[in-house]
Amino acid sequence: MISARFRGHTEPIMKRIAKFFVGLPPNAVTLLSILFALAAAYLFAEQAWFAGGFMAIVAAFLDALDGAIARLTKRTTKFGAYLDAVVDRYVEGILLFGIGLGTGLWIWVYLAMLGALLIPYAKARAAMETEIDNINWPDLMERGERLIMITVLFPICAFYGYSEACLIAMVVLFHFTAIQRILRVYYRLR
Question: Are residues 62 and 29 in contact, defined by beta-carbon separation less than 8 angstroms?
Fold first, then answer.
């Protein structure tokens, strides 16, 4: 929802930044985000919340940069888009796993991860049943919002001792969004 509204403002910025990285293959940048997610997960596991958050932000930045490089260099491919979507799931899972290691709140982490995976799946599966587009799916916790919660808000909450409350909020918001998408498909297919 928020990320869709700001996309018009962030794309020109990412395009300017991408000019410095045109020599890198976009898919390599996509895969590089996994390494930063692993570093973030390690730091989360060590309860270095802000350092982990910073590494997670770098992983999220690389996720935006890969597409900007691909568009700028006219190297967009269907496989690149597919790889990007798959790596996005890995990155979210890795970050949440690190949070689980650092907090021990495995039930909440599992439920948050389940919600994070269901949100994109609900949309991808809907595309098999009905025509969809990205403009008419402005849901509450899209990828950008989930990453903000995981990379920025969670480290702040954890630092101040509110890890469980933050994870519960993630669970509620992530599953609310998945249900929001399920209901949208239900009404479209009726």
Answer: yes
From CA 145, how far away is CA 165, in angstroms rounded? Answer: 17
**Higher pLDDT, residue 12 or 153:** 153
What gap in Å lies between CA 61 and CA 45, rounded to an integer?
A: 21
pLDDT digits (tens, 9 = 90+) for 79-104: 999 999 999 999 999 999 999 999 99
First to last CA, the chain: 25
Q: How many domains does the chain have?
A: 1
Q: Residue 62's domain is classified under what CATH number?
A: 1.20.120.1760
Q: Which domain holds residue 162?
A: 2-189
Contact criterion met (CB below 8 Å) for 97 and 41: yes
Q: Looking at residue 19, what DSSP letter applies?
A: G
